[in-house]
Design goal:
eight-stranded parallel β-barrel, about 10% strand, binds phosphoenolpyruvate, binds manganese (II) ion
């Protein structure tokens, strides 16, 4: 792929690059007020705003559509900052170009389908508008790269990728699993391609955006696209993951910039990957403990009804002995298993007693 350098076409107001704006353009005032506050931070190189929204559930707010294009454009004009919106078909491309939108992105639900991407590529022929391509919903790096190549083949050289995480049945604590290794593979296959992170759609919750940004920065991503809304709780789409411009400013300025010479991308990626796995395992552990507690609640009445004591010494010793043996076969220290089950047993007993007195 022949690609122009990111900072040649998107003049950075700050490094790493920051694109920010609401998930959806909802009204002229909401867009303008958000843009005014974002511009005041002095950090934002482009305003984002969704005009046509791909929503999971029918009946959800699907974007204002065409009229929102001019509100987005007006916000950019006022602050001399380029604007970007999502397109999902050739008609969107035509309308966005006509409205003077400066850049476009292709959403995760569009990248998955080569027919859609090709239609968009065809509609882009003859223009040189910058295009950012989000990863497909599932972690298929070739499909992501294929979409970028289709756009590139249409003559677009101002290209970039947006990493927004991947759908997973279990993605706690995030909305979308980051799967940083997919980004690494993309970097390996297309080393010159700028890649920015969308921490909003990865995190799904505004309070996790800072840590996702820090990971992306540590891993060597080139910038961010972050959702920001003047009043997040009133947002018509993605209210939980949008930051007020003021908070976005705080999050961005709190990021730690590591010395590139000493940062070892492989080490950091490995650490992130392992911690991510640990977070997932912990979520599983908590679910299992909750199930165990539910069983404790159920066993209490059975004992009471039969005039049996809650604490049964023989059973407890058997449990302990048996769990330690199981632990041993899993290479777990005796002490760890002992302490863990003492704690579980203590809370199980407490639960049975408490339930009885309620
Ligand atoms: C968005 O950026 O608002 C959006 C819909 O993103 P994605 O395609 O990543 O779901
Ligand atoms: Mn969104």
């Amino acid at each position: 792929m022949e690609i122009n350098a990111l900072y040649d076409w998107l003049k950075p107001k700050s490094k790493p690059l920051l694109i920010a704006g609401p998930c959806s353009v909802e009204s002229e005032e909401q867009m303008m007020q958000t843009a005014d506050s974002l511009a005041r931070t002095g950090l934002v190189s482009a305003f984002r705003g969704g005009v046509w929204k791909p929503r999971t559930k029918p009946g959800s707010f699907e974007g204002i559509g065409s009229p929102a294009l001019k509100w987005l454009k007006a916000a950019g004009k006022k602050h001399q900052i380029p604007v970007i919106t999502e397109v999902a078909n050739a008609r969107h491309v035509e309308e966005a170009l006509e409205a003077g939108i400066d850049m476009i992105w292709i959403g995760a639900r569009t990248t998955v389908n080569p027919f859609y991407v090709q239609d968009i590529a065809d509609a882009l022929k003859g223009t040189d508008i910058p295009v950012l391509v989000k990863n497909p919903i599932h972690p298929e790096v070739k499909l992501w790269l294929g979409a970028l190549e289709r756009i590139n083949n249409a003559g677009i050289k101002k290209l970039g990728a947006i990493h927004r995480g991947f759908y997973a049945y279990q993605s706690q604590p995030f909305r979308n699993e980051p799967k940083w290794e997919v980004f690494f593979e993309l970097r390996r296959l297309a080393p010159d391609l700028p890649v920015i992170c969308d921490p909003s759609h990865i995190a799904g919750r505004s309070e996790l955006i800072g840590e996702v940004c820090q990971s992306a920065l540590d891993l060597g991503m080139d910038g961010f696209m972050i959702e920001s809304h003047i009043e997040p709780h009133k947002a018509l789409s993605d209210p939980l993951q949008q930051l007020r411009p003021y908070d976005l400013d705080l999050v961005y300025r709190a990021l730690e910039h590591r010395d590139e010479a000493i940062d070892d991308e492989r080490y950091i990626a490995k650490l992130e990957e392992l911690r991510y796995q640990i977070d997932k395992v912990d979520a599983e552990i908590l679910k299992l403990i909750s199930r165990r507690q539910d069983l404790a609640k159920a066993i209490g009445p059975v004992k009471y009804e039969n005039q049996a004591t809650i604490f049964q010494m023989k059973r407890w010793f058997k449990v302990l002995e048996n769990r330690k043996a199981q632990g041993l076969s899993l290479d777990l220290e005796d002490e760890l298993v002992h302490e863990l089950f003492q704690l579980l047993h203590k809370y199980s007993i407490d639960t049975q007693i408490k339930n009885h007195h309620e």
